Amino acid sequence: MSQVVEEVEIPEGVQVEINSPATIRVRGRLGELVNDLSHTGAKFKLDGKKIIIKFMGKRRRAKSMIGTITSLLENMFKGVTQGYTYKLKIVSTHFPINVKVQKDVVIIENFIGERYQRKARIVGEGTKVKVQGEDIIITGIDKQAVGQTAANIEAATKIKRKDLRKFLDGIYLFERKVGME
Questions:
Q1: For 71-109, what is each residue's pLDDT tens digit?
Q2: CATH number, domain 84-178, options 3.40.1210.10, 1.10.10.10, 3.40.50.12500, 3.90.930.12
Q3: What does the H/E/C string look like for 108-127?
Q4: What global pTM score does this model have?
């Protein structure tokens, strides 16, 4: 079996700690992220300002796994140094939609005139959701948590059994960027 080795450069201002078997802790000026990558089967080693990733396996599968791990690590580095911001737009043509944030839940009221509330869960500890007029702004250091929170809010306003060309009401993602607001 062949082995694929990849090196990932650690940026300035970021501390990395690798615990056994493959739990990676990344600290930066905005906070700390922990990711357990033991399910990947890769071996990690800290060498100065580099993380060395070794993966045993066939060439194509090994390269794809290394690429995934590298992306996860780079997203963690960007998260603890710059953060992530996702913006969603509240679109209502028939009834005005009311959106509130309570603890770890986004509550959507009066969606297409419905009497009951629709709820969307906020994922992650450091994920913050703000409602500013027609915009919902989600910020945090964990890209997966911020993205999943945006997806939960979008899915909560999915319209079923109506003509989507006429009923455009909903909450839709319109901007993703690196950096916190």
A1: 999 999 999 999 999 999 999 988 899 999 999 999 999
A2: 3.90.930.12
A3: EECHHHCCCCEEEECCCCCC
A4: 0.91
